[in-house]
Amino acid sequence: MRFLVTGVAGFIGYHLALKLCQLGHEVVGIDNLNDYYNVALKKARLYDLQTQLSKKQFCFVKLDLTDKDAVSPLFQTHKFQRVVHLAAQAGVRYSLDNPFSYADNNLYGHLAILEGCRQHNIEHLVFASSSSVYGLNNKTPYAVSDCVDHPVSLYAATKKSNELMAHSYAHLYDLATTGLRFFTVYGPWGRPDMALFKFTDAIVKGKPIDVFNYGNMRRDFTYIDDIIEGIVRIQDIVPSKNPNWQVETGTAAESSAPYKLYNIGNGQPINVTDFIDALEQRLGIKAIKNMLPMQSGDVYQTFADSDDLFAITGFKPMTDIATGICRFVNWYQDYYQLTDHDKRNQG
Predict the structure, then answer these.
(1) What is the pLDDT of residue 344?
(2) Is 36 a catalytic residue?
């Protein structure tokens, strides 16, 4: 089967493309290679894919989804059967300073993919949403049936908008569509702006780490391999119409249209200070903590109810935090080619 994976030079996109090809599929990956973070890391992910995979298995096309005139020819040329749309402007805090980037990439880019899928009869579109959509919701664990009408960041608002836009295309054009709300993904090849990468890099360099809300925050950290397994399983489960569904009695997680939403998270949130403790133990270095108040756009806790995903796929994330952190640190050391002396000093 031939897949389009958008954001293929990104953290999740890299791992997904590798896994799909290992399973015997063909992948065309696109990315605009923007400079939101160090482009060298994105290029390194691409190099690793191109080194491990044949040209028949994997093809990279540099493309910006805001260039709508380039999207339809891409679909026409490669004849995709399924699409996994991961490309987006990520980051809650960055949206405070660069809001228009989120409108361009997350709204306009998402629309370009929806149009491509509609025009070229894609059999299943899977797209990335986010746990950030739960916003001011204090009920935990978060369930896809919960109200998500009160986002606390522009990033979250664009992800909620993606869900609404996808539903409209499922309704109007029978485009089978599944949205996945990711919960705090971490692991090897992760983004430098995410907690584990930032903390590791600062601790190794003897710099302080910023700990918001004075450490009184909980996150449902979900290891990358678990995320990828969930995506791979769900892309084979194509939503169908449900003529019995009604707004008055149904939930926003499904529809009379071929449309579904799922959480994909570990379901075991841990305190950020415990997360830092586990990282300190693996590195053998104590962190210098800069304790700060809650930052605008942040939420106190994320906590996934992934029972719906488990019920339909039989899969539940299982990687514990110590194992996941260890694997990340091993990758970090190899990627930056730390000396044996450095590694010994880090435990």
Answers:
(1) 45
(2) no
